[in-house]
Amino acid sequence: MTDFTTIESGGTQIAVRKDLRIPMRDGALMAADAYHRPDEKPRPALIALSPYGKELQAYSLKMPGQYRPSVLWDGCIEAGDIARVVNEDYVHVIGDIRGTGHSEGEHIGNYNAGGVSLGEDAYDFIQWVAEQPWCDGNVGMIGTSYFGSMSVLAAAENPPALKAIFVNGGHYDFYETTYHGGVMWLMPRAAREGRGGDSGWAFTDGVKSRMLEKYSKSEIAELVAERLKDADVAAWPNMFHTLTYPKNHEAWFDIVMNDLDGEWYEERNPITLAENIQIPTYLQIAQGRGWTMDGTIELYNTVQGPKKLDVLAYPPMNSRPFVDAHDEMFRWYEYWIKGIDNGVMDEPAVNIHIEGSHQEATGTEFPPKQVEHRPLYLRPRHILAEIPEPLGEEWAAPESFTQLPMTLTNDTAMISWSTAPFKEPTEMMGTGAAHIFAAIDQDDTNFILRLWDVAPNGKRQLITTGYLKASQNELDKERSTEGSPVHPHTSKTPVTPGEINEYIIRIYPFANSFQPGHKLLAELSNNEPMSDEHNALLPPDAFHLPIGRKTTTTVYRDAKHQSRLLLPYTLK
Predict the structure, then answer these.
(1) Pairwise CA distance, residues 72 & 70, whole Å
(2) What is the C-alpha to C-alpha distance for residues 72 and 50, in angstroms, rounded to an integer?
(3) C-beta separation of 265 from 273 below 8 A
(4) What is the dihedral of CA 26, 29, 30, 36, to 10 degrees?
(5) N or C: which end of the chain has fewer CB within 10 A?
(6) How far apart are CA 423 and CA 521, in angstroms?
(7) Arithmetic mean of pLDDT, 244-253
(8) How far is CA 112 from CA 134, 150, 559, 568, in A?
(9) What pLDDT does 316 receive?
């Protein structure tokens, strides 16, 4: 007698085991659904874990993958193509992490489940699945974004049944997930609260605030009052609401209250934990996701077992429901789980799609080619040039822009600089740096740098970005190298208004070949446009917290103040 029901999706018969109850080591029961072909044959399992709700993931059975700017795109339907997984003869097991969906237990804080590592829960979940009669004892992981991060946390615990992981579009350094260069990104809010194209977390009474657990009511009041002194936070109604009514948004409240890096983020940082990963790991990330590319490359360098890195073509957002990248995933699992020698391990470990030329670069590390960091100097008349400005400030006068708060305008003030059209293909690959000499008339602001490839017809594509909170300009001197600055983001130093400072902005990894006739355009601003060629491809809330005060930024680019980009040119 079977203990499953059968459904049909697109002509495929699928057995469904609903509401499995999986015990954790502390006694909490986690909820899961399992999908497989309608028979009792044991199969390898691909496990998907998140706080978004297992019921939501079943939308892959009834809705084709949607791409931005489709209004049906939902960033939380990320567990994978159930019907495809079943047809490939795996069991697709989709579970709710503790304190969410139909699972028991408390989820306190962002990635710290009531003091229990999510990796420990994943270990128990994986081992339980492996022992079921419908599983042959071999397990992999599946899913993008949050699901990908859960794969890394699981692998770091080394459960014996987990044979390999394939991670698409994960996010790893949890501070950098929300604070890019110290500048708050609002898309994680959408993933938790369910705003702007995301269903959000499947909240239950088991989701709690770590800050509220740790501090007394009076202490919280003092901490909130201090946080609201940040003019950017105080000016944004959603931020004020989150801090005033924290029990409505527990996980997001904790993130907003912790705007500096440190122990709170590091204790569950998958990149730190990845030193423990011995199993085969395939990491995949799309171009245009600068900070996630940065974390993916760092994770690749940290993992100890057999590994591959695949940097995909632009655009930055794959479909929801998540149905992309399955072909390569099944090749990976055929080899490592089913034991089929399909040649996947005979191919280069690193494969990089180069925008512009649309060629591939392969090797064993990123960047796979030798590079040389060369400067492009910011010059008057909006010019980017290989030669620095020879004139002093009295002739090469500084240039200013004034950003009004969004209570007064929706316009984004910025300065831009452009190269002359390239005469021959010019390839760049790796991280970079922007050395900007500037003065502001406030004690803090955002520096947002965006680099574009502009075609002769004016069509442009975003290549990479850089972000820096002016008060968090301190460098980690031991980790920083030329063309790859690293900021610890563990403290703030208010800026002296009117003082000229050199701000060193990390330019996130990229790979682009500027074709003849194309230009490189650099834009510097304090805010970013709500919608343009790039942002229209992202969910509506995927922008950074705007500044809350009228701010004038003056940029110096003269013989004494050699503002410049330092970019990774590949060597022929």
Answers:
(1) 5
(2) 20
(3) no
(4) 120
(5) N
(6) 16
(7) 89
(8) 31, 12, 50, 37
(9) 77
Query: Which tokens sit at 481?
Result: 């190298």
Phi, psi of 99 (to 5 degrees): 80, 5
Single-letter amino acid code for the residue at 431: T
Whether the CB-CB separation of 239 and 545 falls below 8 Å is answered with yes
Higher pLDDT, 290 or 570: 570
pLDDT at 111: 65
Query: Coil, strand or helix: which one is 46?
Result: strand
**Whether the predicted pLDDT of 418 surpasses 60:** yes
Judged by DSSP in three states, 47 sits in: strand
Q: Which two tokens stand for residue 278?
A: 């011995």
Total residue count of the chain as it appears in this document: 572
- Residue 419: which of 357, 376, 450 has the closest Cα? 376
Burial of 488 (0-12, 13-18, 19+ CB in 10 A): middle
Q: What is the dihedral of CA 18, 23, 29, 34, to 10 degrees?
A: -20
35, 25 contact by CB (below 8 A): no
Tokens of 250: 């527990």
The helix or strand, by DSSP H or E, that contains position 67, with its residue range, turns out to be none
Domains along the chain with CATH numbers: 5-347 (3.40.50.1820), 371-570 (2.60.120.260)
3-state SS, 262-276, equals CHHHHCCCHHHHHHH
Q: In the numeric block, which tokens belong to residue 563?
A: 């503002």
Convert the pLDDT of each residue in 278-293 to its tens digit. Answer: 999 999 999 887 788 9
